[in-house]
Backbone:
């Protein structure tokens, strides 16, 4: 744990002074009342278009109204904390000349490193989002290994494929049975036997469609190490979730803390609100040097803890303010409550004759359906009754297809037992109708 001052979650003394200068005592007080109401209203509309659900104690808050968004991974955001970050929108997260911004950036990196993910020796690079962090990890892998192939499962995030196209790297897709604990190990072993020039193995924990926590045997990870293959863990959704929760999955914790994970992506906005905040963790801080000098000719750049040459700081600062206000125990409670609600929904579904494609291991609840046509009909009818869900249509070349609809439980205020019961009742009627 690093030095603490006024919050229950760790940060340096410089950050505490900045809070006092802004008149925010653990951010329990409202921001400066002189902020013009029209500006506040514009900010609320902008945040809403980004998918944020704003809650708080002002009349400008955005209340949950139907149709309920049951699928987005973006969490709820306290309105007044977004407003507190607003004066920094014209600043640059990368420019070392902005002392206040740099102090807050370092505070967020320290909180993520020490108090949330418990990876105290890792280098943290803040990026605009998890996709950017994934791309940066693959670029580092390409430059360090001088190779071009990437092993990733058929459940890997689209950002991995997009990054490979941009970087001129080749995807080798690993198809595996999600209900067989050893299937991905076997698929990875076969790929290692049959391919050369592999730069990286990507494991997604959990994936964003089924909530599967991908893992392979340590012997496979050791073989990657011996072959000079980088191991990247895409924990954009699950990194904060499982690290914070007292019910976190031991398989994922083992992977995050193992000596084989060279890089890890986490995405604070999926758990604490406003988008535009991702993070890449590097086990070896020196790995970043392969990308060259971070300095730019027109201002003195900060160190590599911020990615790029221009990056708006408001997403990162809002995440920082939320983590500060919640405290370590508050973050853990959020994670535990979401997991409990997801398990509650799983039980409700089972009691009404439904099953999940995989057992619920996070906030993702993948509800099994029978066909692509049924998915389209159920999704449309659910929205007509006020519930938006996302479609699951996974059709690997060599495995049985999987169809369903997906619900993601987040800290949004409308995920109550009553709303979940109403959702299951509507789903039951819709499926009966089909």
Residues:
């Amino acid at each position: 744990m690093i030095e603490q001052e006024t919050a229950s979650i760790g940060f340096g003394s410089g950050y505490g002074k900045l809070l006092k200068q802004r008149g925010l005592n653990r951010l329990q007080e409202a921001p400066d009342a002189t902020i013009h109401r029209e500006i506040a209203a514009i900010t609320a509309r902008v945040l809403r278009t980004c998918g944020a659900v704003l809650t708080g104690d002002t009349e400008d808050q955005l209340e949950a109204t139907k149709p309920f968004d049951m699928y987005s991974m973006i969490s709820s955001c306290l309105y007044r904390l977004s407003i507190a970050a607003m004066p920094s929108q014209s600043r640059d997260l990368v420019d070392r000349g902005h002392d206040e911004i740099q102090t807050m950036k370092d505070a967020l990196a320290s909180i993520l490193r020490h108090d949330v993910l418990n990876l105290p020796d890792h280098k943290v690079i803040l990026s605009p989002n998890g996709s950017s962090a994934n791309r940066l990890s693959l670029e580092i892998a390409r430059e360090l290994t001088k190779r071009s192939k990437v092993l990733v499962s058929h459940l890997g995030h689209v950002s991995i494929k997009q990054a490979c196209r941009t970087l001129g790297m080749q995807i080798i897709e690993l198809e595996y049975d999600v209900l067989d604990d050893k299937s991905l190990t076997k698929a990875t072993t076969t790929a290692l036997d049959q391919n050369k020039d592999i730069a990286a193995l990507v494991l997604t924990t959990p994936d964003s469609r089924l909530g599967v926590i991908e893992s392979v045997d340590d012997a496979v990870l050791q073989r990657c190490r011996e072959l000079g293959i980088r191991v990247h863990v895409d924990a954009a959704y699950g990194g904060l979730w499982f690290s914070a929760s007292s019910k976190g999955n031991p398989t994922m914790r083992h992977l995050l803390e193992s000596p084989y994970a060279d890089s890890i992506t986490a995405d604070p906005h999926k758990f604490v609100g406003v988008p535009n905040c991702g993070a890449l963790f590097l086990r070896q801080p020196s790995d970043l040097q392969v990308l060259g000098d971070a300095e730019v000719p027109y201002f003195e750049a900060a160190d590599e803890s911020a990615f790029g040459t221009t990056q708006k700081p408001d997403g990162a600062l809002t995440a920082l303010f939320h983590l500060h206000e919640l405290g370590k125990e508050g973050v853990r409670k959020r994670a535990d409550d979401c997991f409990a609600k997801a398990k509650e929904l799983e039980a409700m579904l089972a009691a009404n004759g439904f099953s999940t494609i995989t057992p619920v291991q996070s906030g993702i609840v993948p509800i099994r359906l029978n066909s692509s046509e049924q998915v389209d009909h159920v999704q449309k009818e659910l929205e007509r009754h006020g519930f938006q869900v996302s479609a699951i249509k996974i059709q690997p070349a060599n495995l049985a297809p999987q169809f369903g609809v997906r619900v993601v439980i987040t800290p949004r205020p409308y995920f109550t037992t009553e709303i979940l019961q109403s959702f299951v009742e509507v789903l039951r009627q819709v499926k009966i109708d089909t």
The first strand starts at residue 53 and ends at 55. Confidence is low (pLDDT under 50) at residues 1-13, 23-40, 56-64.
